[in-house]
Amino acid sequence: MAQIIIDKKRITIIAVIIFVFILFLFIKLYDRNDKTEEITTMAELEKEEVAPIPEKPKPSIVYIDIKGAVVKPGVYKLEDGKRVLDAIQMAGGFQTDADQIKINLAARVTDEMVLYIPVIGEVIVNDIGLPANEVDDGKININTATPSELESLPGIGVAKAASIITFREQNGPFKEIEDIVNVSGIGAKSFEKLKDQIKVR
After folding, report:
1. What is the pLDDT of residue 87?
2. Which domains, and CATH codes, for the chain?
3. Is the dihedral of CA 42, 44, 47, 52 positive or negative?
4. Higher pLDDT, 148 or 42
5. Among 31, 48, 84, 162, which is most exposed with the fewest C-beta within 10 angstroms?
6. pTM for this one?
């Protein structure tokens, strides 16, 4: 009887040992799988291609010749789309006697543009008797013209001049003179009156 009890105890101990051993193996196996999965995940992450950040297109460059009552007259290089105000600031700003009222500071600069800043009270004419900021061929550049220059055109009053300036500020410079018909209030009939007196550059 005593022998049977001892055998049962041995069996129980052996069973416990086997259970503990199996549990130990199970834990080890689970831990190994977990680490393998972690390594695999890290490897996949390292293999993922990072999308390159697209480079911003480089702005085009324009050259503008600034003359007259600025601190440093000369030819300046600016990014396309900059304003007359930016160009004048690059030239050191206005001289104290500059007639700023005649200059449209909000106009966009264009390549090969000549900007003349008169002094107060100065009346400047070129060889054909036109104001200095008008083009040499007598046509008005609708991309740079001031409100008063636009109003000098047939059929263009204060409202239409303002519409032209607003349109070019919102949409960029006109590419062709025919584009002026896209301005509200200017149709084909108005263009027929304007086409021989305007240009773009």
Report:
1. 92
2. 135-201 (1.10.150.320)
3. negative
4. 148
5. 48
6. 0.40
Q: Which tens digits make up the pLDDT trace of 77-111?
A: 998 888 999 999 999 999 998 888 878 888 888 88
Q: SS3 string of the chain?
A: CHHHHHHHHHHHHHHHHHHHHHHHHHHHHHHHHHHHHHHHHHHHHHHCCCCCCCCCCCCCEEEEEEEECECCCEEEEEECCCEHHHHHHHCCCECCCECHHHCCCCCECCCCEEEEECECCCCCECCCCCECCCCCCCCEECCCCCHHHHHCCCCCCHHHHHHHHHHHHHHCCCCCHHHHHHCCCCCHHHHHHHCCCEECC
Res. 50: pLDDT tops 60: no
pLDDT of residue 139: 84
Q: Count Cβ atoms within 10 A of the Cβ of residue 43 and give its class: 0-12 exposed, 13-18 middle, 19 or more buried.
A: exposed
Please name the residue that has the structure tokens 């919102």: 170
Mean pLDDT of all residues belonging to the chain? 77
In the chain, how long is the greatest CA-to-CA distance? 137
Here the tokens at position 37 are 């999965």
* Side-chain half-sphere exposure of 33, counting CA atoms within 13 A: 6
To 5 degrees, how large is the angle CA 163–CA 167–CA 170? Answer: 140
Q: What's the confidence (pLDDT) of residue 57?
A: 62
